[in-house]
Design a protein that fits this description.
Blueprint: H1 7-17, E1 21-22, H2 23-30, H3 34-44, E2 46-48, E3 56-59, E4 70-73, E5 76-79, H4 84-94, H5 101-108, H6 113-121, E6 126-130, E7 133-137, H7 141-153, H8 165-177, H9 183-194, H10 200-209
Antiparallel strand pairs: 1-3, 2-3, 4-5, 6-7
Helix pairs in contact: 2-3, 8-9, 9-10
Length: 220
């Protein structure tokens, strides 16, 4: 019989077969204890997802992060900044006038309202209301002052005119499966089924940009 590969090499082969794994599935496939798998992952280097309560793992060299340090595999989100809270903190701190829950949801493709409310309640983030929408700000004094000043003079942001590639795929899949759905219904279904935060307006603009003929109408 050929000698079995060392555990570290076996682990890497599993990730070459599939880029994202849950810890229990890795332990089962390797026939090793969870603590042993954690040790192997630490030796090789890994990222944990900021979605799904950090249940998904990927090797450190797998993600192709965008300029904000975000990468998605299907509907699983990873950040080079770490957890969802750490990633929100990074995005908010580097923004010129703070970010709304809607804007963060679009960047992360993940709902953020509850997390942002808790971060504000625990004084991790500040916030200011601008034209009926909360914008979340850094608490560091100099950054906070600059963001408040900019938020006061900046025009209200509008939803992005273009969806991410992954978001566009899910919108088209939902539309093909259910062509009679309105933009509001598509957004609601994607939020519920895939935890994908998109506004009906961004979906409408996507249909217009690509001249999609069967554009659903909002219910009267």
């Amino acid at each position: 019989m050929p000698a079995q590969l060392p555990p570290g090499e076996r682990l890497q082969k599993l990730f070459h077969r599939r880029p994202c794994w849950r810890l229990a599935d890795l332990a089962h496939s390797l026939d090793r204890a969870l603590i042993s798998v954690r040790r192997l992952l630490k030796q090789i280097g890994y990222f944990r997802s900021y979605t799904d309560n950090g249940k998904w793992y990927t090797l450190r060299d797998s993600p192709q992060f965008n300029r904000e340090g975000i990468w998605h595999h299907k509907n699983i989100g990873f950040s080079k900044h770490g957890s969802l809270i750490a990633t929100i903190g990074y995005l908010v701190a580097r923004s010129s006038s703070g970010l709304s829950a809607r804007e963060l949801g679009q960047k992360l493709q993940h709902p953020c309202h509850a997390v942002l409310t808790n971060l504000h309640k625990n004084q991790v983030l500040d916030r200011v209301k601008v034209q009926g929408e909360f914008r979340y700000l850094a608490t560091e004094e100099q950054t906070n002052r600059r963001q408040r000043e900019q938020a006061a003079v900046s025009p209200p942001s509008t939803p992005a005119t273009s969806l991410s590639t992954q978001a566009a795929v899910w919108v088209l899949v939902e539309h093909i499966r259910n062509p009679g759905l309105s933009f509001e219904q598509i957004a609601a279904r994607l939020q519920e089924q895939r935890q994908l935060a998109l506004s009906p307006e961004s979906i409408r603009r996507f249909f217009q940009e690509h001249d999609l003929k069967e554009t659903p109408q909002a219910p009267s």
